[in-house]
Amino acid sequence: MHVSRYSYVRTSRCGPMVIAASIMMGAAPALADPIGSLSPYRGGPSDPGGGGGGGGGGGYSPRVNPLRGVVPNDSATVGLFMYDSALNRQSINTGGEAPVVRTVSSTSIGNNRNGVGTVNAYWDEIVSGSNQYIRCVLSTSNGEAFIPAGSTVTTQAGGTQPAAFWSWQFGTVDGVDFASYVDQVRLTRASISFSADRGQSFFSTFTHTSTIPNRNNWIPGSDDGELLASVGDGTNYIMLQYTIEVTPSPGSLALLSGGLLTVTRRRRR
Predict the structure, then answer these.
(1) Could you say which of 136, 183, 198, 205 is the most buried, measured as most Cβ atoms within 10 Å of its Cβ?
(2) Cα(57)–Cα(16) distance, integer angstroms
(3) Contact 132, 120 (CB under 8 A)
(4) Which of 67, 133, 119, 125 is nearest to 101 (CA)?
């Protein structure tokens, strides 16, 4: 049985801290639902290689929960980055932290510096009964890996160094905006899942809820990511999912039921 070590580095103001976790790969069964039994979503036709099809709809099916919260047509920035051992950083997608409007279809956020295709992304709010999520998916357009073995980072001095880590960022320049009637958004779980077959199966999932400092009131929604020491693992599709609990401001439920409350943007950080 082939065993591959999959590790990542948690960052903090005091510097990176390496945390390693052994993941059984190859002979281990793929994770059919990496998010867990509460996940309401399966990739639909607009989600290339999105886990078997079947009309997930990206959260645009009829919603009865009045507290779905996210501003319609909101945008949030999304990007992937690679680092050398000295933590010099370069974006994997040439668009850097690119704005992405919430949608059910992937959009390009720039060419893949480590390949010939593009890096694509989409995100949306998903409501399923009393469960509520923000989901963001990043993938390559042609199945290439985000950061294959041998990838290099261009340094400020103009040279190159081998890539040692990579990471994601979601909403760090332009976060998820919630409606004016939302008083609090509690982030109860943040997870990332990794696929090397464009989302058909996932070989690893881990949670990183504790690394998000404003999780008790996740307004605006953002995630600085973590440094992953898994260069060359073949990942070409990642799924970020944020389980949230939305609390309305006092009196807003009555206004919502009467259709008297308009949705407006909150001030960005």
Answers:
(1) 136
(2) 38
(3) no
(4) 125
